[in-house]
Design brief:
single chain; 10 helices; globular; 15% strand; alpha/beta; binds phosphoenolpyruvate; eight-stranded parallel beta barrel
Length: 245
């Protein structure tokens, strides 16, 4: 299992440090792989807290460019330099807020690979796409377009995040999660065998109260958690559920 917390655009540096410290203090022995994705401006402060712990951290986005005239962007080399070991790419909020295309996301996955960072590639359908029966086709086309055809140093984890379930309190049913995750596993085996065994995370309103159900679905290798990763007790509750799954 792999449990990842996406802190999004929340908190002050003091709150980031406190949350990271509470997770370091509360992480049980035998916990699954645990990663946190603080706002970029808090990465250095968080790294100071977690550096001697099993928790690792990543960025919420990266540039596909190596360096240069890209105001406001962060390179994978900058992330790695500050202690990040991974990066989220293609989150639906980046696709919506910043118009990120699948092509741009492929560039980011490749950049993460080149720096040896683990990429957490987010895929998922909108409500309209699900209601019109296109959920699986949409996810397949995102996988095909955003995943390189060869892989080098960095790992790639897939996060299936139905857009309509993110931050809404609505969670996909266990049957829908099982069907989508099984489809993703089969697609990887057929089209990207080098990463066919990777973690497939579910994301979308996961909380301590529903985590056991989510982890009981087929091919679920963990969770990408937004809102519930902002409180240490909630996030640690999800980690506890993963340990029981
Ligand atoms: C996310 O943003 O990746 C996410 C899953 O958010 P939430 O858990 O708040 O739905």
């Amino acid at each position: 299992m792999f449990i990842a917390g996406n802190w999004k655009m929340n908190g002050t540096v003091a709150q980031a440090r406190d949350l990271a410290q509470a997770l370091v203090n509360g992480l049980p022995d035998g916990a699954p792989a645990t990663a946190i994705f603080p706002p970029a401006i808090h990465l250095a402060a968080v790294h100071d807290i977690i550096k001697d712990s099993p928790i690792f951290m990543g960025g919420q986005d990266c540039s596909s460019a190596e360096n240069g005239a890209h105001t406001g962007d962060l390179s994978v080399a900058m992330l790695a330099d500050i202690g990040a070991r991974g990066v989220i790419v293609g989150h639906s909020e980046r696709r919506t807020d910043h118009g990120e295309s699948n092509e741009a996301i492929l560039g980011k996955v490749k950049a993460a690979q080149s720096a040896g960072l683990g990429a957490v590639l987010c895929v998922g359908e909108t409500l309209d796409e699900r209601q019109s029966g296109r959920a699986e086709t949409v996810v397949q086309s995102q996988l095909a377009a955003c995943l390189p055809t060869t892989f080098d140093s960095g790992s790639v984890v897939i996060a299936y995040e139905p857009v309509w379930a993110i931050g809404t309190g609505m969670v996909a049913t266990v049957q829908d999660i099982s069907a989508m995750h099984s489809m993703i596993r089969q697609w990887l085996q057929a089209h990207r065998p080098e990463i066919a065994d990777t973690f497939i995370l579910y994301g979308g309103s996961v909380k301590a109260a529903n985590a056991a159900d989510v982890f009981g679905a087929d091919e679920v290798g963990g969770a990408l958690v937004g809102g519930a990763s902002l409180k240490s007790d909630d996030f640690l509750g999800i980690i506890a559920a993963a340990m029981k799954a």
